[in-house]
Here is the input.
Amino acid sequence: MEKNINKKMNTMKLAVLASALIFSSSSSWASERIISAGAAITEIIYALNAESQLVAVDLTSKTLVKGAYPLVGYHRQLSAESLMSLTPDRIIGSNEMGPSSTLKLLKQGGVDVDVVNSGETVKDLLERIDEVAALTNKTPAAASLKAEISKKVDAIQTHLLTQSTQKKVLFLMIHDGRPANVAGRNTTADTVIRLAGAINPAANTIEAYKPISAEAMVQMQPDIILLSSRTLSSIGTIDDLLKKMPLLAATPAGKNKALATIDGTALIGGLGLKSIDEAERLNKVFYQD
Here is the structure.
């Protein structure tokens, strides 16, 4: 009888210890203080319902967060001092996060620095979701989010089957005092254009974002010019763009004054959830007839 009592007591002790370990583990995750350095990271954190772990975000995430969070500056120009003052446990960002000297100081200060997948394909996005889910202890939520993304991409692809012809869409990055850049292959802009059912005429000859002459743009004969909404707001209208770059008038886009915009946050840190939404929207814009 005494043996049975001792056995029951040992079993109870083990159960209490297991509960304590589980509580300790969950508490440590709940108390994680995370800084998100990139819109493509922040949107996933919210989609996984892990925003309670956030203590600050970068400027590219400003429009994505619900509630007041300290802003730590631009994700490419982070300050170690301002970040450390927030006593974070970890900072999560893309391969655009930096500078490297800041990241080195953070590591030396005991902060976990996590650079997640920053690629521009749907596969990269799904991998990034898994990575962020693991870092925030939200792995079960990742499966449903990935299923939602796959379903949305499949719906876009199905809709594309009804299109008889593809339009050529050229994405331009325009900054005062510098030559305009176009988005070539292996860019998020290229992926969004293709997901939206269009052809990127720069993809055959250009990789990444590169400056090219207006004459080279004319040779590509785009049907539509794609700009970030921020760029268009600084330029004005399609007429203002043609005044700034008059040779574009010799393209179908210029002749038809065909201009579309994309939310710039959809292009930061690789293909993101916003990128998929923008591809879905742009498909309707490109083929509204």
